[in-house]
Design goal:
This protein has two domains: 143 residues, Aspartate Aminotransferase, domain 1, CATH 3.90.1150.10; 222 residues, Type I PLP-dependent aspartate aminotransferase-like (Major domain) (Aspartate Aminotransferase, domain 2). Helix content is 41%, strand content 14%. The chain has 13 helices and 13 strands. An eight-stranded mixed beta sheet has the order 2-9-8-7-6-3-4-5, with helices on both faces. A three-stranded antiparallel beta sheet has the order 10-13-12. A two-stranded parallel ribbon has the order 1-11. The radius of gyration is 21 Å and the shape is globular.
Length: 397
């Protein structure tokens, strides 16, 4: 008999395993996978970059590197953060093995079993899995089309018998809800948190993937809003803008937080892959990244438009959604009592899959919602998939 620790019993970890199994299959129309389409990866550019590296740099690709990150990638990422308006002074950068590792490191750094973490509801399932694994008491705060509901956040904090260790937020092109926090809601949130001594963990994996240049001003990071006494730890990722297989993310935080985070990372994997860091650094240095981002924005905008048009045409009354301004996702909402789990089983029999709403509920309860990802979907499959989905929804409404 095995006597496993409580850490292996995360309900949301099981959801992630199921999600990865659902995300692909030769005969499936899958709206499940929140990942890029394989045909969009910059294979030729990466080939050219590697072929152009000197022999000494190629050798260093195979070597261990500094725990904090390869110097060239640190410089490249830091400059991009400064361009987004993040403050230069009083912050250090740490390269991580994907942004989920950054979230995990921060959780290990601050959370003892039973400590409180606040999240949005719905919330990125990967983060929920991390918080549960390390024994946090997770409380979800409802969001609307403008962001987290400040009155509900205040009520929750007042009702708790202990101060939350941190508040986890995804303000830009939210996963799974697809929303973007309004500028007014960001201001209200920061004004409310000002001086409360609650750390904000800002997860910003998608903000480079806006569909309209006019919307770029809407995705200004919370950490770029100065003048508030709010400690914000900022995390980001290369998974959505270069490729998940690179396993590259980062965190940007105060020197005290970063120093302890580096200690945690050293115990986890010593360092992030030098190979991937050098390729990513050169991809940015050789000025491939910005043209590639422009290409991705166009691709995802077109897929979003096809899906939006199909839903407008085929979805029955009673189904609601917010049109995303960027990112990968639509979040469909149904009347109370509707079961997206039952809908999933019916749709799967017809070769269409998505992710059920309760997967993203911190309490694993609310099931009258679902997430559709269009990023991995070939254009030709979007309309047929929505037709089937709408037919099965109609049967259950």
């Amino acid at each position: 008999m095995y006597y496993f620790s409580r850490a292996v019993n995360s309900v949301h970890s099981e959801d992630i395993k199921r999600l990865m199994r659902q995300a692909s299959g030769p005969d499936l129309i899958s709206f499940a996978g929140g990942m890029p389409n394989n045909d969009l990866f910059p294979i030729r550019q990466i080939d050219a970059i590697y072929d152009g590296l000197s022999e000494s740099i190629k050798k260093s690709c195979f070597q261990y590197g500094p725990t904090s990150g390869h110097p060239t990638l640190l410089a490249s990422v830091r400059q991009r953060l400064l361009n987004k308006g993040l403050p230069d002074e009083g912050n250090r950068l740490l390269i991580t093995t994907g942004s989920l590792q950054a979230i995990s490191i921060i959780t290990q750094e601050f959370i003892n079993e039973g400590d409180v973490v606040l999240t949005e509801n719905p919330c990125f399932v990967g983060a929920l899995s991390v918080f549960e694994t390390y024994g946090a008491e997770v409380h979800g705060i409802p969001i609307d089309e403008n962001g987290i509901q400040i009155d509900r956040l205040k009520t929750k904090i007042d009702a708790l018998n202990k101060k939350p260790k941190f508040l986890y937020l995804t303000p830009n092109f939210h996963n799974p809800a697809g929303i973007t926090y309004s500028l007014e809601r960001r201001r209200e949130l920061l004004e409310f948190l000002d001086g409360q001594d609650i750390i904000v963990l800002e997860d910003d994996a998608y903000s480079d993937l806006f569909f309209d240049p006019e919307h770029e001003k809407l995705v200004k990071p919370l950490k770029a809003h100065t003048g508030y006494d709010v400690d914000i730890i900022y995390t980001g990722s290369f998974s959505k803008i270069l490729g998940p297989g690179f396993r590259l993310g980062f965190m940007y935080a105060s020197p005290e937080v970063s120093e302890k985070a580096e200690t945690v990372k050293q115990a986890l994997d010593a360092c992030t892959s030098n190979f991937m860091q050098i390729l990513a650094s050169e991809f940015s240095h050789e000025e491939y990244l910005d043209p590639y981002l422009a290409f991705l924005r166009n691709e995802y905008r077109e897929r979003k438009s096809i899906l939006q048009k199909a839903m407008n045409e085929f979805m029955p009354d009673g189904v609601k959604w917010t049109e995303p301004l960027g990112g990968f996702y639509f979040w469909l909402r149904f009347p109370e009592g509707f079961s997206s789990t039952e809908l999933f089983e019916n749709c799967r029999e017809r070769g269409v899959v998505f992710v059920t709403g309760r997967t993203f509920d911190p309490h694993n309860e609310r099931d009258n919602c679902l997430r559709l990802a269009f990023s991995n979907m070939p254009r030709k499959h979007i309309e047929p998939g929505i037709r089937i989905l709408a037919e099965e929804i109609r049967k259950l409404l």
